[in-house]
Write a structure and sequence with these properties.
homodimer, about 325 residues, Rossmann fold, seven-stranded parallel beta sheet, 13 helices
């Protein structure tokens, strides 16, 4: 597209971190004024590994990510981390992000950390997170790690963001973990049994490897199971975890699945963006625009049911452009 | 509206529980064939208390609900319980619902229990749950209890369903609870400090009462704080909990807030139904309809960005009806 490139976009392409942080906040807050920046950056986005790190609270995702970042820096790769928090749409702010941020070395320009609050809906979050990961790729980060903090729905949404999904578990799974497990199992490209120093870790790894073997299909990727332990120095399994992730990224290219998946994700993203636009526009108008207001009156009076009202609203929604 | 009343709707109005259960499943699965039933029932819906019971896992919501149900039966009220589970959109099924169901007396026709799986999005869930609560009201249940199982986002969504929101907490709040608390605090009409037998319960109650006092605004409802304990026989505070809920329901009528809130909820529901329709229709067409497919190709080729694509899709979306 032939549009003028906004200065913010140029700054981001030139590695200006403050411009990057500002644009990310605008995306997070769904500030429409960031649209030209997002547009301008899109053609500069390269396909980088976007690694989702999912799993319930308390399995040690943050420590794992700190060590993965360190490992990637050893390998000379620049890395950005996006932590997605299940904070309330009311209180907004990111609760766990700060704790994580402080554990990072502020003086390393090759690392960028950002936490994002999840605004109510998994779908909208995925769309926003995808825009942010693309901004980070355009800003020349070679790997993007996306951590989700303990909400099943948000974890699942990572599937629409990450090229490789790592699911972190611990030897003894409590009730809640069991609840999440089924869903998590289906998104995992790599399983990470963390706290491998705990009793039962080897059994958990074996069980998972077996489950994974049963689920394996010809030509498809068979999820890898890696054991890690972040407590000892040096920690265990971090290099293995990263190579399992790289193996999956290689599989995506060799199998042609990266292109298929990216197409599916972009389709999902477009649908979500349209849903968002429609929802935003309608929320503003439904109790203001005279026609809609009358319709709402009829629904309140129980003369028209909400489904019928929704049909009429959709039918009568003004076209754009 | 002058439409023929489907036999399923008649059966539900006449108290046929199997017809009711079937229709609820159809709503839960977003089966469009249930639309005529939903429509026919809408004009028969009465305003009954819809009590949301929210709070993190492990605070004892299920036991509280069992006791509230018993209390309501003592008072001669019929009651329906909807348990909303944070199950994954993949594995679908309701995990905790069954455990709860088994603890109920199957032979009491004045009680109806149903668990619903939350399909991915808090918004869609709220819309589906609202349709179900209206069906239950049309089926002559005098009180509807909605339990949400431990996902912050889902808890928050209860605000769009319940006329009275009860937030259940326990004396010593862990990290996760703290994370949810901010959001939960803002939806609570009644706070229930459960496990009041534990040390620190009285302090927790006092702290909450103080917080609530600070937040109190003139003319508005000041959330009530009730202590309960489900372990001793007889259990403690259940009657008090129910009267706090009834006080809030009375406030809704006296202040005229019931009407305002119901209007807001219906507006939100209509917006969500439109979003759903748009999303469903578009997901089906985006990689099939030639025009959309070409557009998606351009996005995949990074020649058009997703936001621009979304604008065009919305502009060109065919009108209905």
């Amino acid at each position: 597209m032939t549009r003028a490139v906004p200065s913010a976009a140029r700054a981001i392409l030139d590695g200006d971190r403050r411009a990057l942080a500002r644009a990310i906040s605008q995306v997070e807050n769904r500030d429409p004024s960031v649209a030209p920046v997002v547009r301008a950056l899109y053609s500069h986005v390269r396909n980088v590994p976007v690694v989702g790190i999912a799993g319930p609270l308390g399995v040690g995702k943050s420590s794992l990510i700190n060590l993965l970042v360190a490992r990637l820096r050893e390998l000379g790769r620049t890395v950005a981390v996006v932590a997605v928090d299940p904070s309330s749409p009311y209180s907004g702010g990111s609760v766990l992000g700060d704790r994580i941020r402080f554990s990072r070395r502020a003086d390393d320009g090759g690392v960028f950390f950002r936490s994002m609050a999840s605004r109510g809906e998994a779908g909208g979050l995925a769309a926003a997170t995808r825009e942010v990961t693309r901004m980070l790729a355009a800003a020349n980060f070679e790997v993007v790690l996306v951590e989700t903090v303990g909400s099943g729905q948000v974890d699942i949404a990572v599937r629409d963001v990450a090229t490789t999904s790592v699911v972190v578990l611990v030897p003894h799974l409590g009730d809640e973990v069991q609840t999440l497990k089924a869903g998590l199992f289906e998104i995992a490209d790599v399983f990470c049994v963390n706290k491998a120093d705990l009793p039962g870790a080897e059994l958990a790894r074996k069980d998972l490897a077996e489950l994974v073997g049963l689920a394996a299909a010809r030509g498809a990727w068979t999820p890898r199971v890696v054991s890690t332990s972040t407590f000892p120095t040096p920690p265990l399994g971090i290099a293995e975890l990263w190579s399992a992730i790289e193996d999956h990224e290689r599989f995506l290219d060799d199998s042609g699945q990266r292109a298929t998946e990216e197409r599916r994700r972009l389709a999902t993203e477009i649908v979500e963006l349209v849903r968002e636009r429609v929802g935003r526009e309608l929320s503003e108008r439904i109790d203001r625009a005279p026609g809609l207001r009358k319709l709402l009156d009829e629904v309140v009076a129980r003369r028209i049911d909400p489904r019928t009202a929704a049909e009429r609203v959709e039918r009568d929604r003004p076209r754009r452009g």
